[in-house]
Write a structure and sequence with these properties.
Order of helices and strands: EEHEHEEEHEHEHEHEEEHEH
Strand content: 15-25%
Radius of gyration: 20 Å
CATH superfamily of the largest domain: SPOUT methyltransferase, trefoil knot domain
Number of domains: 2
Structural class: alpha/beta
Number of helices: 8
CATH class of the largest domain: Alpha Beta
Mean pLDDT: 87
Largest sheet: 7 strands, parallel
Oligomer: single chain
Helix content: 25-40%
CATH architecture of the largest domain: 3-Layer(aba) Sandwich
Strand order of the largest sheet: 9-8-7-12-10-13-11
Length: 277
């Protein structure tokens, strides 16, 4: 009989590497949901777990729009994992509280009404926490007002991303959204223009694009880029002109180039009189 390879897992088994951004156990997670739900980004539960506290965890997670994942079994790996008794429930936590999207949009709309040139960074299904942290760092350094990430197919906003951000995660507004397409529609209604970074030949050059308007700058995953439905919501598709034979950049590098071009354009503008862009 063939046995599963080490760390490959059995069918239906979820394997998670022990890290600083994990919380486990029924009571600790229940209490964290009661006291600071804004720091929890995902809860992973074994399907066979039952009981009042488990039902309470599910109910509170849904109340606070926290991602819920169900699996047949859970296994932690890595140093110290043999000492962990997770009781069939694990939570991913963020180093900084997340802002509710509705509140965030309301605040951004107010800033636009005050004629501020607000910029947001949006990460569509970015799966590498190092890249995500680096983008958050660039967003803060370039003067962006916040960063929005997807709940599904996205790197966790935990310890690895926080370390890569070099502390930036604690100083910029962070949001997670379930439906990015719907979120972009809300941002458009609030007064934003949506700019999607792509590598298509018929896209507009970054350096010929006016990014001084209220802007949402969208970058996609490391491999597939922006998803088709998200791309469809973009007002303008932009690309970075490059020399040589390479046709794309690392997501975090591309985001930094775009963010600082937007920053350069803003700094080049004369002071804006009240009521005029």
């Amino acid at each position: 009989m063939k046995t599963p390879e080490k760390n490959k897992g059995l069918p239906g088994e979820k394997i998670i590497r022990l890290s600083e951004d994990l919380l486990w156990g029924i009571h600790p997670i229940f209490e964290s949901l009661e006291k600071e739900p804004e720091r929890i980004t995902e809860i992973i539960l074994q399907k066979d777990k039952r009981g009042g506290k488990i039902e309470g965890i599910v109910e509170m997670a849904r109340l606070h729009n926290i991602k819920l994942s169900f699996t047949d079994s859970l296994r932690l790996t890595g140093d110290g994992s043999s000492q962990v008794r997770h009781q069939g429930v694990i939570a991913r936590i963020s180093d900084t509280p997340l802002v509710e999207f509705a509140t965030f949009v309301e605040e951004m709309a107010e800033r636009i009404e005050r004629r501020e040139r607000v910029r947001l960074m949006i990460c569509d299904s970015l799966q590498d926490p190092h890249n995500l942290g680096a983008i958050i760092r660039s967003a803060l350094a370039s003067g962006a007002a916040g960063v929005i990430v997807t709940r599904e197919r996205s790197a966790p906003l935990g310890g690895t991303a926080a370390k890569a951000s070099a502390g930036a995660m604690s100083h910029i507004a962070l949001c997670q959204v379930t439906n990015l397409v719907a979120a972009l529609k809300d941002l458009k209604n609030a007064g934003f223009w949506i700019f999607g970074a792509v590598k298509e030949s018929d896209s507009q050059s970054l350096y010929a694009t006016d990014l001084t308007v209220p802007s949402c700058l969208v970058v996609g995953s490391e491999g597939k880029g922006i998803r088709p439905l998200v791309k469809r919501e973009c007002d303008v598709l932009i690309s970075i002109p490059m020399a040589g034979t390479l046709d794309s950049l690392n997501s975090s590098v591309a985001a930094a180039v775009i963010l600082f071009e937007a920053r350069r354009q803003q700094l080049a503008l004369p002071p804006c009189p009240p009521g005029i862009w």
